[in-house]
Amino acid sequence: LGVQFALGAFAAGLFCAISIGFVKNNCRVKEDAVMGIIFSGMFALGLVLLTKIETDIHLLHILFGNVLGITTEDMVEAGLIAAIASLVMLIKRRDLLLYCFDPAHAAALGLPVKWLHFGLLVFLAVTIVSALKAAGIILVIAMLIAPGAIGFLLSRSFDRMLAIAVGVSVISCLAGTILSYHMDSATAPLIVVIQSAIFIFVLAISQLKQGRAKADVIAA
Length: 220
Prior knowledge:
The protein is an all-alpha fold. It has one domain. It contains 9 helices and no strands. Helix 1 runs antiparallel to helix 2, helix 4 packs across helix 7 and helix 7 crosses helix 9. The chain starts with a helix and ends with a helix. The model has no long low-confidence stretch (mean pLDDT 80).
């Protein structure tokens, strides 16, 4: 359509975020089901448009990313988005934490629950868009979820979870990039493989600890 890739992706992501929030607030359907329907519908619409519109962007690059195709402008753009998102997270950390764990309590305290909800969705959409060229629309979801899940398994403190998630993200990205160079393989999939391996390892360790704790309780 003659629209820049990042701008079109941002508009689509913003539409998805607002649509998810609106449908979730005005419908009995659960949020995960709403997200699945809207994301799948937008993804299917994108594939239909891709077959009808001439573009120099390859479908595989949209799905799985193209790290080698990232320009300096893309890196600056991603850095600015990361800085803004981190700043907002630091400033509104307590409000966001309370809203995520207890929305009813947050509303009772007079916090703008709807704005916090839509704000989180918008920042999520912007973050996904900033990583699309590097990771692709499929693998970026795994990169968003895996580090947080690992942090959740390793710590009960929210601040420590954030620190662990950031550390896992940085280490896996560096390791995936280095391995992809030596293995002559795609970078984004290797990063996700490393994050998945870390998650499985941490999950296995946590299950073993829980099993030993239960055994000690029974023995006592």
